[in-house]
């Protein structure tokens, strides 16, 4: 039997995952709603009080996911769309979340996913350009370092690109960093926030532990192990699932958390700041025009891109390793659309 506290938790549609405001609500689309990330992401977005309407699309399974999720007792309306109804799914949408694509399997890198996922993301971005050109686009599909430039270039070709409204979702790196640092320091994750900059794969992930009160206490071998785990936490999940999938549940959580931050910004809430992979001036002089750093979100999407701040000697080395790899990833995405 459930305890009273458990019943109260289940009855409350807004958990600590979400911050809410009743001033403004929004229609959100999930493209790839039938997949391993898409299904739990759709469930979590159904629980977000800022979502008025949830539009679920996939080449297979979306109407079933929508029927299932629609029974959850929150106010938002849910509708599912099959493969040939993509444009209909995007009508009136203000936020588009894209988890579509194939997952990683053992031995695969995010870059191995490129050939399949690049064309999927390009085609979905083209539909967004046609139907919902002013929507904020949140890209989860890997490799994010390449798929975000693909979305940007596709929208630009269509003449509707607004760099303030295209985001790569790197929140899982931030979530992992907080969770793993909490484990190392015997703290609560609420006490261990970590800014993560760079990109969203392996060596391009740069956790800025020196700017965390708890993180700056970690050094030596413990530091090296912590950084490696943050950078390659996805491999841990792929191996543990033994060919049956990748990080779907934690990614859905992170995706919903970032979507809520975007919605709060659109709603006019001040001070909503989180790392995300966007068109950025921080390293543009080195030919790296997309970069993840702390970004303040607002009614127009990106309101302010924050500098990365002071780095430790170790972090400077991590950044040096990040930049050339990130540049290659970005150029690969651009070349695909050229």
From TrEMBL:
**Listed GO biological process terms:** malate metabolic process; tricarboxylic acid cycle
Q: What InterPro entries does the database record attribute to this sequence? A: L-lactate/malate_DH, Lactate/malate_DH_C, Lactate/malate_DH_N, Lactate_DH/Glyco_Ohase_4_C, Malate_DH_AS, Malate_DH_type1, NAD(P)-bd_dom_sf
Give a single Pfam family match: Ldh_1_N
Q: Does the keyword NAD apply?
A: yes
Q: Which residues form the active site?
A: 200 (proton acceptor)
SUPFAM superfamilies according to UniProt: LDH C-terminal domain-like, NAD(P)-binding Rossmann-fold domains
Q: Which GO terms describe its molecular function?
A: L-malate dehydrogenase (NAD+) activity
Q: Which intervals hold domain Lactate/malate dehydrogenase N-terminal?
A: 26-168
Enzyme Commission number(s): 1.1.1.37
Q: Report one GO cellular component.
A: mitochondrion
Question: Which residues are noted in the entry as substrate-binding?
Answer: 104, 110, 142, 176
What this protein catalyses is: (S)-malate + NAD(+) = oxaloacetate + NADH + H(+)
Domain Lactate/malate dehydrogenase C-terminal: start-end pairs: 170-337
Q: What class of enzyme is it?
A: oxidoreductase
Residues bound to NAD(+) are 32-38, 58, 117, 140-142, 251
Answer yes or no on keyword Transmembrane: no
The text of the family note is: Belongs to the LDH/MDH superfamily. MDH type 1 family.
What is annotated about its quaternary structure and interactions? Homodimer.
User: PANTHER family this protein is in?
Assistant: MALATE AND LACTATE DEHYDROGENASE, MALATE DEHYDROGENASE, MITOCHONDRIAL
Record's NCBIfam families? MDH_euk_gproteo
Under which name does UniProt file this protein?
A: Malate dehydrogenase
In its UniProt entry, the species of origin is given as: Favolaschia claudopus
């Amino acid at each position: 039997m459930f305890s009273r506290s458990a019943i109260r938790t289940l009855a409350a549609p807004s958990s600590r995952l979400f911050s809410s405001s009743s001033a403004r609500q929004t229609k959100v689309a999930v493209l790839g709603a039938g997949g391993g990330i898409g299904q739990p992401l759709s469930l979590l977005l159904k629980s977000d009080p800022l979502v008025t309407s949830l539009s679920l699309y996939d080449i297979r399974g979306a109407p079933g996911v929508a029927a299932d999720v629609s029974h959850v007792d929150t106010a938002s309306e849910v509708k599912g769309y099959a493969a040939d109804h993509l444009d209909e799914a995007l009508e009136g949408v203000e936020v588009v979340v894209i988890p579509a694509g194939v997952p990683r399997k053992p031995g695969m890198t995010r870059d191995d996913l490129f050939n399949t996922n690049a064309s999927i993301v390009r085609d979905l971005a083209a539909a967004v350009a046609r139907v919902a050109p002013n929507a904020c686009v949140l890209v989860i599909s890997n490799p994010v370092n390449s798929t975000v430039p693909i979305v940007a270039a596709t929208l630009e070709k269509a003449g509707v690109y607004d760099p303030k409204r295209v985001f790569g979702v790197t929140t899982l790196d931030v979530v992992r960093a907080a969770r793993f640092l909490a484990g190392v320091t015997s703290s609560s994750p609420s006490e261990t926030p970590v800014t993560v900059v760079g990109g969203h794969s392996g060596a391009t992930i740069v956790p800025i532990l020196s700017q965390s009160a708890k993180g700056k206490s970690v050094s030596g071998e413990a530091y090296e192990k912590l950084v490696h785990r943050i950078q390659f936490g996805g491999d841990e999940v792929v191996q543990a699932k033994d060919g049956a999938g990748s990080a779907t549940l934690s990614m859905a959580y992170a995706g919903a958390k970032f979507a809520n931050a975007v919605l709060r910004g659109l709603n006019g809430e001040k001070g909503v700041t989180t790392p995300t992979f966007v068109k950025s001036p921080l390293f543009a002089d080195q030919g790296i025009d997309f970069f993840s750093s702390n970004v303040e979100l607002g009614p127009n999407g990106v309101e302010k891109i924050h500098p990365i701040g002071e780095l430790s000697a170790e972090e400077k080395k991590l950044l040096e390793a990040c930049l050339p790899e990130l540049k290659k990833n970005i150029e690969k995405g651009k070349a695909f659309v050229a």
